[in-house]
Amino acid sequence: RSNSCPQHSFHFSSFCSFHFIRLHPTTNNYCLAFPRRSHLLLSTFSTMVEQAQPTTTTASASTDEKPQLVKSLQDLTIIEHYDRGATKPKATTFFHITEDEELYFGETAKSKFDTTIEEFNQALERVPDEDVWPEILPGTQLSLAPEGLTEESAFLKRPEIISFHPGGSNNDMIPRSILRETLIMEQISRSPHPVFIRYLGCRVRRDRITAIWLERHDITLKDYVETPGFKNLDKGKFMDSIDSAVYHLHSLGLAHNDINPSNIMVKDDMLPVLIDFGSCQPFGYNLDSLGTVGWYEKPFFTSEKEHDTYGLKKLREWIKNPE
C-alpha cells in the first residue's frame, strides 16, 4: 500500500490468505489469487484500489483566448505617430471594425511593418459602444439606409474614430459630432436643394448610430482644377449654383461654416455638390470644429452665416485663379 492508499480497519487474515503470482503475460500487471467465497475481501480490496488511483484531469481550452479579428493590414486603420524630425514612429495605434460595427483599438511601440498579425490581434481591445457610437434618443425620427449599400456605390461616413484613445479628454466629441451631422442631414433632406449632397440614411446597430451613407462622387473642386476639363467649366454658373445652395441653407436657419474647394464635388455635368455638413449648425450654436485653415477670416467657435459669406467670396476669387 502506498501513502496515497486510504487506511482501512480490517485485517486480511480475518478472511483468508492470498498470494501474489507472476506478471500477467499480456498486461504486465500483478494478479491476486483469492480462495473461493472470498467476495467480501475482493469487494473491499477493489474499493481500496479505486480510492488509491491517481486522479487525472484534462486541461480545458483557454476561455480567454482572443479571437483572430484581422488577417492582414488591410483589415486595420493604422496611424503611426512620429516625433518631429524622427524617421521611425514612436508609437502605432490601430483600429478594426467588425461586420457588426464593433470597434476594437490597439497600440504598440513598434512600426506597423515590425508588428506581426498575431501581435496586432493580441493588442486589440473592444471599445465600449458608448465611447464612439451615439445613442438614439427616444422619439428621434431617423431614415435608415438600405442594408444592401456598399462603399463602391455610396460613401460611408463614420465618426472620427482615429481621434479615439483610451482615457482621451476629447473622446466625447466623437459620438457627438456624428450625431449632430446625422440630425442635420435628416433636416436638410426634408428641405432638399439640388446642390446638397444626397443623404441615403444612417446605419444603426444596438440602438446607436454607427455611420451615415451619402451619394458618392469622384472628384473635389480642389482636384478638378488640375484636370483638363477645368478650362471648360462655366465658372459663373458653377458659383451661382453654390450661392443658391448656401442661401437655401441660411433660409433654414443653418450655416455650413466650412466652405472651401475640398468640400465641393464636381459632377459629370460640371455642376457642384456641396458636401461635409459636419460643421453645419443653427445660427449661434457652439461648434466642435472651426473650418479649414486659410478659408476663414478669423477663428470662430459658433455657427454664423457670416462664415459662409466670407467663404463664398473667397471661393469666387480662388476659382478664377486656383493656387
TrEMBL record:
<dbReference type="Pfam" id="PF00069">
    <property type="entry name" value="Pkinase"/>
</dbReference>
<dbReference type="GO" id="GO:1990604">
    <property type="term" value="C:IRE1-TRAF2-ASK1 complex"/>
</dbReference>
<protein>
    <recommendedName>
        <fullName>Protein kinase domain-containing protein</fullName>
    </recommendedName>
</protein>
<dbReference type="GO" id="GO:0005524">
    <property type="term" value="F:ATP binding"/>
</dbReference>
<dbReference type="InterPro" id="IPR011009">
    <property type="entry name" value="Kinase-like_dom_sf"/>
</dbReference>
<dbReference type="GO" id="GO:0051082">
    <property type="term" value="F:unfolded protein binding"/>
</dbReference>
<dbReference type="GO" id="GO:0004674">
    <property type="term" value="F:protein serine/threonine kinase activity"/>
</dbReference>
<feature type="domain" description="Protein kinase">
    <location>
        <begin position="94"/>
        <end position="323"/>
    </location>
</feature>
<dbReference type="GO" id="GO:0004521">
    <property type="term" value="F:RNA endonuclease activity"/>
</dbReference>
<dbReference type="InterPro" id="IPR000719">
    <property type="entry name" value="Prot_kinase_dom"/>
</dbReference>
<dbReference type="InterPro" id="IPR045133">
    <property type="entry name" value="IRE1/2-like"/>
</dbReference>
<dbReference type="GO" id="GO:0036498">
    <property type="term" value="P:IRE1-mediated unfolded protein response"/>
</dbReference>
<dbReference type="GO" id="GO:0070059">
    <property type="term" value="P:intrinsic apoptotic signaling pathway in response to endoplasmic reticulum stress"/>
</dbReference>
